[in-house]
């Protein structure tokens, strides 16, 4: 019997399966700091999502790193305590400043260990209406497929011509993503150890065949120039030849490249338009990277570098995460 090309989302047409599916939706975890207007937009978009009312929302509010930030952090927290529209809202207020990386690592670890799966957002990620639907569908379809290690709601490329509705890439994106306990439990942040482990050829492949300098982030972490987490999650995926699922039309938009963030410059090249206005229905059963999507993504990175993105990247490298 020939293998079906796409997964059957049985919960979409079976009442009992749908009820069970809704009862087991992945928790949403949102990380916030001191940007009230960004946080409001992120929450407002999330509230409009299908499945929002049936989902648990955990919000981690980092503490102020200095007296100047106290007022803005308190303003965000006052707003968070008014948030509704979800099955339940849990607010975790950090008593001290953890910094973005430690806040995410600790929060994701705690929640994913409890639920077995997780959907992660930061306070500058605006989602489309079917973002949660796509995330929960993918988490269910690929839960027992070890090679699939993450799900991205953000798409680097807007050119989706000849691409299937979903596709796999051998790297991830951290602007609206999801994963499972089976993947995250192996996560480790040990930059100095990586310096000993990787060959030049492996570094070239790690940098998406020279299209983007991910290894530079590892070096900056090893030297103490910055303290981040996402590049090490990518490294874990890369080391195990894992894949990340992407939608052919982005379901998440990063609105943080407006100069307000401490680790982002003022730039629009990564601000993918939220164009995914329809439900994603086709999830490939065959788990393998899309050659076409890989080439399109490489071209995007190379073109961005030639247009001056490298200047922005160099500035970002010099900034410490909050």
TrEMBL record:
<dbReference type="GO" id="GO:0016740">
    <property type="term" value="F:transferase activity"/>
</dbReference>
<protein>
    <submittedName>
        <fullName>Glycosyl transferase family 2</fullName>
    </submittedName>
</protein>
<feature type="domain" description="Glycosyltransferase 2-like">
    <location>
        <begin position="28"/>
        <end position="141"/>
    </location>
</feature>
<dbReference type="Pfam" id="PF00535">
    <property type="entry name" value="Glycos_transf_2"/>
</dbReference>
<keyword id="KW-0808">Transferase</keyword>
<dbReference type="InterPro" id="IPR001173">
    <property type="entry name" value="Glyco_trans_2-like"/>
</dbReference>
<dbReference type="InterPro" id="IPR029044">
    <property type="entry name" value="Nucleotide-diphossugar_trans"/>
</dbReference>
């Amino acid at each position: 019997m020939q293998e079906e090309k796409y997964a059957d989302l049985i919960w979409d047409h079976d009442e009992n399966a749908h009820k069970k599916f809704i009862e087991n939706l992945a928790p949403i975890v949102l990380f916030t700091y001191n940007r009230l207007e960004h946080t409001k937009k992120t929450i407002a978009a999330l509230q409009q999502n299908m499945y929002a009312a049936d989902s648990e929302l955990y919000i981690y509010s980092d503490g102020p790193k200095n007296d100047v930030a106290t007022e803005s952090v308190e303003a965000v927290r006052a707003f968070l305590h008014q948030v509704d529209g979800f099955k339940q809202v849990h607010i975790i207020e950090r008593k001290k400043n953890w910094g973005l990386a430690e806040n995410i690592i600790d929060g994701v670890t705690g929640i994913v260990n409890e639920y077995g799966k997780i959907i992660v957002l930061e306070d500058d990620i605006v989602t489309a209406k079917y973002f949660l639907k796509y995330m929960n569908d993918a988490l269910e379809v690929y839960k027992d497929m070890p090679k699939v290690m993450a799900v991205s709601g953000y798409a680097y490329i807007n050119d989706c011509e000849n691409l299937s509705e979903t596709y796999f890439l051998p790297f991830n994106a951290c602007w609206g993503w999801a994963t499972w306990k089976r993947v995250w439990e192996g996560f480790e942040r040990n930059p100095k150890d990586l310096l000993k482990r990787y060959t030049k050829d492996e570094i070239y492949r790690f940098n998406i065949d020279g299209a983007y300098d991910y290894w530079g982030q590892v070096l900056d972490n090893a030297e103490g120039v910055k303290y981040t987490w996402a590049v090490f999650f990518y490294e874990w995926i890369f080391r195990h030849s894992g894949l990340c699922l992407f939608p052919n039309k982005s379901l998440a938009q990063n609105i943080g490249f407006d100069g307000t963030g401490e680790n982002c410059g003022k730039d629009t090249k990564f601000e993918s338009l939220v164009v995914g206005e329809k439900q994603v229905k086709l999830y490939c059963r065959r788990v393998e990277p899309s050659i076409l999507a890989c080439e399109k993504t490489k071209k995007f990175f190379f073109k961005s570098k030639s247009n001056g993105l490298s200047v922005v990247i160099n500035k970002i490298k010099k900034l410490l995460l909050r």
